[in-house]
């Protein structure tokens, strides 16, 4: 039996699960183009007579999604950039630089993966309050970065461990420092791991509701998940606006994943094999 023929039974077995996962999203997208009368029809998957693009314009205008998307983008960019700046050097140091307590330090970071953020939310809030960072985008960026660092270090270290030490020795012969080795040697060959870290950080940051709920109070600084909940509660009876706003909230991050899914899979796979 060829490899292609062996894949058919698995594909058939996964098809029902795929349908269950996609059905709510398909229903949501179709309903976002309907009128209120069409949404109340018996068959939720019936295609609308006319595509109501106005639903998205009304939701964008009434819900203030421009400001919400802008806040979420600033938050996402800050978390992703700081995660890369922190996790790449830390992963390199823990993988290739020998120093006392290296393994114990790595285990301490891994311990951070086992502690739910809900268990430390009060100390986090007190620290932010003492630094006057409550209700600011800077505060939520720092909190989400600290929450993303343990997995980011684990991912980058797992990839760097598989890089031959001969590359480091050759670079040292040419007079390169560890920082130059990281920038000029390791990062160029670790593109899959870097892109996987970018996607994971972006997904978790964009969809995070709990931490922004604790840190961000004023509507002017709230991110998209918070604004969507506020918008849905205000216009709970206007389903066309709620459905359109929900599609607006998850469309950008889905497009990012679709564009980078191949690299995302390669980064996780190579990191798992090499780690």
Automatic annotation (TrEMBL):
It is found in: Cell membrane. Coiled coil: none annotated. Keywords: Cell membrane, Membrane, Plasmid, Transmembrane, Transmembrane helix, Transport. Residues 69-260 form the ABC transmembrane type-1 domain. It is a multi-pass membrane protein. It comes from the Bacteria. The chain crosses the membrane at residues 73-92, 104-125, 137-160, 181-203, 241-260. This is Permease component of ABC transporter.
């Amino acid at each position: 039996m060829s490899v292609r023929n062996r894949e058919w039974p698995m594909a058939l077995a996964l098809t029902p699960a795929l349908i269950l996962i996609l059905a709510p999203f398909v229903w949501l997208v179709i309903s976002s183009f309907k009128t209120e009368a069409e949404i109340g029809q018996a068959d939720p998957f019936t295609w609308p007579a006319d595509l109501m693009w106005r639903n998205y314009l009304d939701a964008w205008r009434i819900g203030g999604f421009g400001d919400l998307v802008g806040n979420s983008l600033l938050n996402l960019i800050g978390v992703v950039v700081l995660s890369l700046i922190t996790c790449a050097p830390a992963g390199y140091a823990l993988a290739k630089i020998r120093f006392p307590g290296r393994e114990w330090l790595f285990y301490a970071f891994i311990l951070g993966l086992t502690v739910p953020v809900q268990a430390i939310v009060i100390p986090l809030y007190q620290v932010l309050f003492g630094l006057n960072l409550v209700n600011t985008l800077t505060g939520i960026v720092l909190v989400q970065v600290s929450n993303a660092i343990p997995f980011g270090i684990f991912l980058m270290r797992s990839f760097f461990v598989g890089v031959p030490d001969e590359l480091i020795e050759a670079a040292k012969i040419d007079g390169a420092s560890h920082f130059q080795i990281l920038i000029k040697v390791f990062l160029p060959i670790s593109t899959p791991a870097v892109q996987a870290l970018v996607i994971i950080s972006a997904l978790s940051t964009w969809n995070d509701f709990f931490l922004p709920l604790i840190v961000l109070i004023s509507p002017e600084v709230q991110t998209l998940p918070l604004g969507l909940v506020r918008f849905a509660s205000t216009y709970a009876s206007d389903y066309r606006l709620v459905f359109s706003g929900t599609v607006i909230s998850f469309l950008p991050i889905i497009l990012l994943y679709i564009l980078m899914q191949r690299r995302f899979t390669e980064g996780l796979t190579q990191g798992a094999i090499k780690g």
